[in-house]
Amino acid sequence: MASRALSDLAEPVRLAALAFVARCKAAGLDVLIYCTLRSEAEQAALFAQGRTVPGVIVTNARPGRSLHNPDATGKAWAFDAVPTRSGAPLWADEDALRRMGECGEAVGLEWAGRWRGALRERVHFQIQNSAGGRHE
Ligand SMILES: [Zn+2]
Q1: Cβ 68 vs Cβ 43: under 8 Å
Q2: Residue 134 covered by a domain
Q3: Distance 28 CA to ligand 1 centre (A)
Q4: What is the Å distance from ligand 1's center to 121 Cα?
Q5: Model confidence over 9-24: pLDDT tens digits?
Q6: Measured CA distances, 122 to 54, 88, 115 (Å)
Q7: 88: domain CATH number?
Q8: Is 131 within a domain?
Q9: Could you tell me what percent of the chain has a pLDDT over 70?
Q10: Where does the pLDDT of residue 2 fall: very low under 50, low under 70, confident under 90, or very high at 90 and above?
Q11: What is the band of 80 on the pLDDT scale with cuts at 50, 70, 90?
Q12: 78 C-alpha to center of ligand 1: Å?
């Protein structure tokens, strides 16, 4: 099971995540961070989805190529978040997703909602690390 613990984030990302949640709250948005660290085995299963097993393609990152995967110290450099209302996730609320993305960018995170191509992952935020890992 992937982690949603902020303690599994590398320190710069953990601090940005805290600032992100505070900024969202100030903007009237409740958000839930629902994924931080993802093992390479979990990444492999996710990558297979829509390719070799049924389902929708949700990632282009192979195992070890995602910033959700553990770095040399076992920490992730990415997290996924969704806006919520009364505890219910707003997966399809375009306005809330955009506002959430802008809050992430305002605290220095890279927001995958800006990425071009088929996989605009509006729930995904990251900070590039020196190892040069990729998105998702
Ligand atoms: Zn992600």
Answers
A1: yes
A2: no
A3: 23
A4: 7
A5: 999 999 999 999 999 9
A6: 23, 17, 9
A7: 3.30.1380.10
A8: no
A9: 92
A10: confident
A11: very high
A12: 6
